[in-house]
Amino acid sequence: MGVLGALIWAARTHQETVQSLPEILARDFRPLLEGERVTEIDLGAIEERAEEIKREYPYINEVIVRKMTPDGASTIVYPFFNNIDRKDSPPETDPTFRSMVLTGEDGSTVGTLYVKISPQRSRLFMLAIAGSIWALVVVSALGYYAIRAKEQEVRKTTSLLEEKQRELIHLERLSLVGQVTANLLHDLKKPVLNIRAESEALPDGEVKRTIQDETELFLNLVRDLHLEGFLRKDRERGEFVEVAEMLERSLRLVKYAQGNVEVIVQLPENLPFLFAQRHQLVQVFSNILLNAFQALEGEGTIRIGAQLTEEAGEPWLEISFSDDGPGMPYEVQTRIFEPFFSTRPESESTGLGLYISRSIVEGLGGTLTADSIPKHGTTFTIRLPLSEAEAVSPENSENREVI
User: Fold this and answer.
1) pTM score, whole prediction
2) 3-class DSSP state for residue 303?
3) Do you find a cis peptide bond into 90, omega within 30 degrees of 0?
4) Residue 253 has pLDDT above 70, yes or no
5) Range of the domain at 9
6) Alpha carbons within 13 A on the beta-carbon side of 214
7) Residue 135 has pLDDT above 60, yes or no
8) All residues at 6 or more sequence positions from 246 whose CB lies less than 8 Å from its CB, including other chains
9) Do residues 222 and 260 touch, judged by C-beta distance below 8 A?
10) How many domains does the structure of the chain reveal?
11) Residue 395 burial by CB count (10 A; 0-12/13-18/19+): exposed, middle or buried?
């Protein structure tokens, strides 16, 4: 705003200077014209001052000085040639000349000063000022919009940070719930084990069998789910597990959502063991299967396969889950591994299944990826590294087909 004000002030000052220039210059020429006759004035001083004026003010094209004589006539004393060539100079009809009558100390007229202003140069100066003002306005507008855009970006970033903070708080709460659940299951096993032990003293009969069957079912469910170990991440507590067995357990765990979906498991012979925690593999496999069941909505086919690959001389195991469902659009596919993201209602999904699954796989040194084409199905691929010990195959491993 300060620069804009300075430019406007310069333009206004220029206009005022042009308007009052004859009056300003008259002060210089008035003393030079004192004297009754032309022969009594210093013509050289008048010429020198006139030339100085044209150098000081580039937009002055011409200066004419007339001397008033005692008989009431006037004659041009600068420039000298005008006194010969242009008796009527300057022409009264020329609007580019500005005049100022010069009076002596006694009030008598001693002469007249004529100044011819170049309208082109004056216009150029004003155009330059106007252009500068316009450029300043444009730059200011661009700067304003840049600041607004930056402000919106900062607000968006702040909003995202607040959202992430809320997600972290939610994760902390879920972690606390997991710990409480694990401790609760551990404590619940004690009275159930006591009930099973006490039931041995009961007489044989249907009541005893029912109690023992129900307690055994509870303990088997807890053992198969292995919920006490969900929060444990130490690989040292792992063991060699068979992939086919983990897949069967995972299918049983989410069978409630299968509907009429056909599941075909085709694994190659001599598939190697994996060194991992059983409950972690069950958690990963069951999450992927549950997502596929929900996408197929009770109708369709899921194919589960595996193969051995090699990368940089190291063996890897790839396990794939492919369905013939509706697939995912690109904007969904890019976000499925984000925590709390889900396309299903909040009451049906927490949006953490795939996020936790990928975290588990990455903790095992592998990768979990998804490839999907709308209307052509989705494939999830798990890649896990194999050590030399893990490369040992089960002795009785055969092609399996589970439907």
Assistant:
1) 0.46
2) strand
3) yes
4) yes
5) 2-123
6) 9
7) yes
8) 278, 281, 282, 285
9) no
10) 3
11) exposed
